[in-house]
Amino acid sequence: MTLHFEEPSASHPAPSPAASSSPAPSPSSPPTSCLNCSSSPISYQSPTCRHPSLCNGCAMKQATGGKCKVCGEKFFELQRI
Ligand SMILES: [Zn+2]
Ligand SMILES: [Zn+2]
After folding, report:
1. How far is the centre of ligand 2, averaged over its atoms, from the C-alpha of 7 (Å)?
2. What is the pLDDT of residues 17-42, one digit of tens each?
3. Domain coordinates of the chain in residue numbers?
4. Rounded distance, CA 53 to CA 66, Å?
């Protein structure tokens, strides 16, 4: 009489820890200094695209029109924020 021992195949691959935690996207903080002179705080935005981009002094220079420093869209007035 012959006994056959069937070994249980213990070929269970170790579960690879897929815990590759991606870093949380940091909240994009709005720019705080003028995108034109970068020396004064932003206080004006284009009313068309609503991108805050200009400080008080630069807004006075471009009050009659210019291009948004963020998206390049033309504006013809500026809005105090
Ligand atoms: Zn400025
Ligand atoms: Zn813009």
Report:
1. 70
2. 665 666 655 556 655 899 999 999 99
3. 31-67+77-81
4. 11
